[in-house]
Design a protein that fits this description.
By secondary structure, the protein is mostly helical. It has one domain. The protein contains five helices and no strands. The chain has helices at residues 2-15, 23-45, 65-87, 98-105, 109-128. Helix 1 runs antiparallel to helix 2 (23-45) and helix 2 packs parallel to helix 5 (109-128). The model has no long low-confidence stretch (mean pLDDT 83).
Length: 129
Amino acid sequence: MAVAALLAAALAGWASGTAPFSVPADVAVSVPSALLAALLVAQRVAPTRRLWRPRALPVEGARDRRTSAPWVALIVLVLAVELASYFHPGPRSLYPTLSSIADRALRCRPVKAAAFLGWLAGGWYLVRR
């Protein structure tokens, strides 16, 4: 696991130096995506050969409106802010969208590397579920 974490950190460091929408950036995103997809398919095709210990799944029906309501409210709030910022007649600098805020933040290479590493960790979490 430590080797995988080091490889992920190295990949994030390399990916943070790529120009947006370039071939190296596409490779930096495509290769881990394909690898995680292949791991997921391999786990589903041959479930007897466990690549990792399965997690205990929550009991069906355990989710209710109390647990999903905050997520729905957050999504509605983000969408409302995005739409209001996008359609506001003022300049973008006064009413930025989330993508313009993220673009400014991701210009800093360490922040971009940390975001990429978080993206890899999120993908790994989803594959292990």
